[in-house]
Design goal:
CATH class: Alpha Beta
Subunit structure: Homotrimer.
Bound molecules: ligand LEDWP2DD
Shape: globular
Strand order of the largest sheet: 1-2-3-4-6-8
Keywords: Acetylation, Fatty acid metabolism, Isomerase, Lipid metabolism, Mitochondrion, Transit peptide
Structural class: alpha/beta
Radius of gyration: 18 Å
Family: Belongs to the enoyl-CoA hydratase/isomerase family.
InterPro entries: ClpP/crotonase-like_dom_sf (IPR029045), Enoyl-CoA_hyd/isom_CS (IPR018376), Enoyl-CoA_hydra/iso (IPR001753)
Number of helices: 13
Distance between the termini: 36 Å
Subcellular location: Mitochondrion matrix
CATH superfamily: 2-enoyl-CoA Hydratase, Chain A, domain 1
Length: 298
């Protein structure tokens, strides 16, 4: 698709990058086209201009895995919202039953060329840079399980509201797949739940039930499943009463050290990822994990 090619082209990526933390001041005009509701195959964005709040519904069956296409679409949607001065808040939720997001699409990392893996990782970085550095108030309405990259997506938001359903879990479980959460996943978690909780969680690849996640601060609030969205909306209203410039500067102050670390090391981080993920032993671990997923289903 033209937009996907555009996003990946060298000419557009720097323009997108330059807007991650101060999008309203330095926005590239590339994507200032759409201000009303938009639909797309993997993500549906409802934007209410009267409240200034957009809702991003992830709708990529079966489990909202974060594929290259999904992430590209997510980045473009974010870019559009970020550049719209009237859009001040974003709620991210899932339209798939029982799952918020299954994390990075394993098939993008298994049996793929180094070039493909590099391209994939670049858009994973891009998603994180855009969301973690967003000027908008961002709220994750977590209405299902949210492992690994799904947990990261939640952690990039300013506030997390999760369905109080013990069947769901959330956490950075990468080590269970035989892979390693990179430093910016780790730091996003440290910034949320502290060093010790992160150390234990990452080494063991822990997936937390909602009550445990609340206890360590991985999520901020548990609510009955049918209230996740309404509580997210109410919470958004409260956050939007805070003077915008003061809140945004405070957010940048808290997050920029981590953001800058990735921004200044992007290429090296891509090289690390590619050389790690294409190792034969890691590929074998991913294959075994996928087989385990299929067996669990059978
Ligand atoms: C010196 C230091 C070096 C360090 C260098 C570091 C470099 C970086 C290293 C690499 C870092 C990578 C970081 C990775 C992050 C990730 O996000 S990896 C993905 C992890 N995800 C998971 O573990 C979740 C797996 N899925 C599930 O647990 C369950 O699917 C679910 C989400 C709980 C939902 O369960 P259920 O509703 O029962 O659905 P299923 O039947 O299990 O699944 C339906 C189909 O979907 C497929 N699927 C599930 N998850 C994924 C996925 N993440 N990717 C691709 N496909 C997925 C599943 O196999 C089923 O498929 P079918 O059988 O074909 O229907």
């Amino acid at each position: 698709m033209a937009w996907r090619a555009a996003l990946r082209s060298k000419a557009v990526i720097p323009a997108l990058l330059s807007c991650s933390s101060h999008g309203r001041l330095c926005a590239s005009p590339t994507f200032i086209t759409q201000r009303n509701n938009s639909t797309s195959p993997k993500i549906k964005v409802d934007y209410d201009q009267t409240t200034g709040v957009a809702v991003m519904h992830m709708q990529s069956p079966p489990v909202n895995s974060l594929s290259l296409d999904f992430l590209t679409e997510l980045c473009i949607s974010l870019e559009k919202l970020e550049m719209d001065k009237g859009c001040r808040g974003l709620i991210i939720t899932s339209n798939q039953p029982k799952v918020f997001s299954a994390g990075l699409d394993i098939l993008e990392m298994y049996g793929k060329s180094p070039e493909h893996c590099g391209e994939f990782w670049k858009v994973v970085q891009e998603m994180w840079l855009k969301l973690y550095g967003s000027n908008m108030v961002t709220i994750a309405a977590i209405n299902g399980s949210s492992p690994a990259g799904g947990c990261l997506l939640s952690l990039t938001c300013d506030y997390r509201i999760m369905a109080d359903n013990p069947l769901y879990s959330i956490g950075l479980n990468e080590t269970q797949l035989g892979i390693v959460a990179p430093f910016w996943f780790k730091e996003t978690m440290v910034n949320t739940v502290g060093h010790r909780n992160t150390e234990v969680a990452l080494q063991l690849g822990l997936l937390y039930k909602p009550a445990e996640a609340l206890k360590i601060g991985l999520v901020d609030q548990l609510v009955p499943e049918d209230q996740v969205f309404s509580v997210a909306t109410q919470t958004m209203t409260k956050w939007l009463t805070i003077p915008e410039h003061a809140r945004q500067i405070t957010k940048s102050m808290m997050r920029n050290p981590t953001i800058d670390k990735l921004r200044t090391n992007r290429e090296a981080d891509i090289q690390n990822f590619v050389s790690f993920i294409t190792k034969e032993s890691i590929q074998k671990s991913l294959r075994m994990y996928m087989e385990m997923l299929k067996q669990r289903k059978a």
